[in-house]
Design brief:
Helices cover 5% and strands 61% of the residues. With 175 residues, the protein is mostly beta strands. The protein has a single domain, classed as monomeric porin ompg (Porin), CATH 2.40.160. Strands 1-2-3-4-5-6-7-8-9-10-11-12 form a 12-stranded antiparallel beta barrel. The longest helix has 4 residues.
Length: 175
């Protein structure tokens, strides 16, 4: 989760995610978002295997500074593995390269999922390998999902291991 506002001329992002060994809702996911402002992105998620449309939104309440972490609020469908539901989350994140000399950026927060009507802790850690590659371990309150991300210009390709064992991938493009 980035704690900096985005100032790119590209406002649209189209994403597709394919996962193996998952409930139908999570197996295939398509998203389309529009960046209204450097700190506000909204859109729609479509899960074709169950015919579900759901809202997406991310609001960067506070940008990261030298001393302060970023604060983000958002909503998306509930965590991977749930057959239905919406999640509402809040996170804080901070790039720690300046403080530690290491290319690490953690985030922590909480997510309320409507599938089980429960508030869960969430978090993750990104390690930047170089300008194009990063590794992310994300915890959704139940499971850890490691990802290897490759970014080139407007394109991002991610390899994901759901629960650390079931492979999948996602691709997104900004335009």
């Amino acid at each position: 989760m980035s704690g900096a506002g985005i100032d790119s001329q590209h406002r649209w992002t189209l994403g597709v995610r394919l996962l193996t060994n998952q409930v139908p809702r999570a197996a295939v996911r398509t998203t389309l978002t529009y960046r209204f402002h450097s700190r506000l992105q909204m859109g729609i998620e479509y899960n074709p295997r169950v015919g579900e449309f759901a809202p997406l939104a991310n609001l960067l309440v506070l940008t990261e500074s030298k001393r302060r972490p970023a604060v983000m609020l958002g909503t998306s469908t509930d965590r991977i593995g749930t057959p239905s539901g919406q999640a509402f989350f809040a996170t804080v994140s901070k790039n720690l390269r300046r403080e530690t000399g290491l290319p690490l950026s953690p985030y922590v927060g909480a997510s309320f999922g409507t599938f089980d009507h429960r508030l869960r802790p969430i978090g993750g850690l990104t390690m930047f390998l170089n300008k194009r590659f990063s590794i992310l371990a994300t915890y959704n309150g139940v499971n850890v999902h490691p990802l290897l991300n490759f970014t080139h210009g407007q394109h991002t390709l991610s390899l994901i291991m759901v629960k650390g064992r079931d492979p999948g991938m996602s691709y997104s493009i900004t335009f």
